[in-house]
Write a structure and sequence with these properties.
alpha/beta, six-stranded parallel beta sheet, 8 strands
């Protein structure tokens, strides 16, 4: 059963305040400036936070350590951040920072490391359990400053106020955002992403495109400037992503994707318009339960969400299909145009190596009731900005995702 068309209630461009104070240092070898930048932003003792062994083996961590030492900045280290970062590492980081008198956190890695760093930054300055922020029962009053050295273009955490953490007890994945979590500086060296496997690169590209789509599908009217920015971002990703899948050492394409990842999620393409974020929320339950890559989960969920809601505003989906995917407008049958855009989106994701259904992702259709329960809507409750979804609606989207094909 698909979403039945309902009246579309439009609003004109919303009032907004846009705040994006992060200093971006972009280009080759820029990680060697880490120590000087930490000092510039007042850090004297740093938590060097990272994931697995790749940053060590590549020599990146060694270069960062030397940069900190050369600047006279003391540091302690905490590695082992898990993809879909877990709360136990956050608790470990909070304890370490308090014990060592850390006053600055430097995240070396991708979105998982940055998200973990932001959670630690809040937890150090809070007397309660940091999970209070992710369960929406408290707001932070302060946080340690955070900075990043990015190693994968994906989450956009290097320029955003957002963070996502998974609680091991129940594998509950939740997000939180606050402007005090925007990084003080972010070092973006596209060359650091050249060693990524194709699958990780594709997952990152999918996440970037999803960040744009969550903003693009809106009930806010007359937002042509941000519409065009969103469309340009998506077209750049369509153009550049196949290049790096075919040639991982294509620095120019990597550079375009890295900057697109930041722009997609620091909200420059989302100001003045209502946003949705249902696809992200629905996907979080997949990666929380199955520990799959977030981008891979989005590749399965996002087109399914589109198929469920497109009748809410067929012409917006037609605009997306014609401007982004080059679909010929069928004025006698606009729904066909909208659906062809969705089909081309799914086909593109498949072409870069992403899964398109539950079986390819490693998820199970029989787990849909569990996924819906973990989503946690109260009885009779709804969620969403573009279309309000009930628990039954979310179950239907999972079913579409489970059975999707090209």
């Amino acid at each position: 059963m698909y979403f039945v068309q309902s009246p579309v209630y439009f609003r004109y461009m919303n009032n907004f305040t846009f705040y994006s104070p992060t200093k971006f240092v972009f280009g080759k070898d820029t990680e060697n400036q880490a120590g000087a930048l930490v000092k510039e932003f007042g850090g004297s003792k740093v938590l060097l936070h990272f994931g697995g062994q790749s940053a060590e083996k590549s020599g990146l961590l060694g270069r960062v350590r030397e940069s900190l030492k050369a600047a006279g900045v003391a540091f302690v280290e905490l590695g082992g951040v898990h993809p879909n970062p877990l709360d136990d590492k956050v608790y470990e980081g909070i304890d370490l920072c308090k014990r060592e008198g850390v006053d600055f956190i430097l995240a070396v890695g991708g979105g998982s490391v940055i998200d973990s760093s932001k959670a630690i930054a809040m937890g150090v300055c809070y007397d309660g359990d940091f999970w209070d922020f992710y369960s929406y029962t408290a707001q932070p009053k302060a946080a340690l400053p955070v900075a990043t050295i990015l190693t994968i273009a994906a989450a956009g955490s290097e320029g955003s106020p957002d963070t996502v953490i998974t609680k091991k007890d129940g594998m509950i994945k939740r997000g939180f955002g606050n402007d005090m979590l925007r990084p003080k500086f972010s070092i973006l060296n596209p060359a650091l992403t050249q060693t990524l496997p194709a699958y990780q690169t594709a997952c990152g590209a999918t996440d970037i495109m999803a960040h744009v789509c969550e903003r693009y599908f809106t009930n806010t009217k007359n937002v042509e400037t941000t519409d065009r920015l969103c469309e340009g971002e998506l077209m750049a990703m369509i153009h550049e992503t196949p290049k790096v899948i075919a040639n991982p050492d294509d620095y120019e394409a990597r550079a375009n994707i890295m900057w697109a990842g930041m722009v997609a999620h620091n909200n420059i393409v989302g100001v003045g318009r209502d946003q949705d974020w249902n696809s992200h929320g629905i996907e979080h339950e997949l990666s929380g339960l199955y520990d799959c890559a977030h981008g891979a989960g989005l590749a399965v969920i996002m087109p399914a969400w589109m198929e469920f809601v497109y009748k809410h505003d067929v012409m917006r989906f037609c605009q997306w299909a014609t401007r982004v995917w080059g679909v010929q407008m069928d004025y006698e049958n606009p729904e066909a145009t909208a659906l062809e855009g969705i089909r081309r989106f799914r086909q593109f994701l498949h072409s870069i190596g992403m899964p398109i259904n539950f079986a390819e992702l490693g998820a199970k259709e029989e787990d849909i009731p569990t996924l819906v329960k973990k989503f946690g809507l109260p009885e009779g409750g709804t969620t969403g900005g573009f279309v309000k979804l009930s628990s039954n609606d979310i179950a239907e989207i999972y079913k579409i995702a489970a059975r999707a094909s090209l």
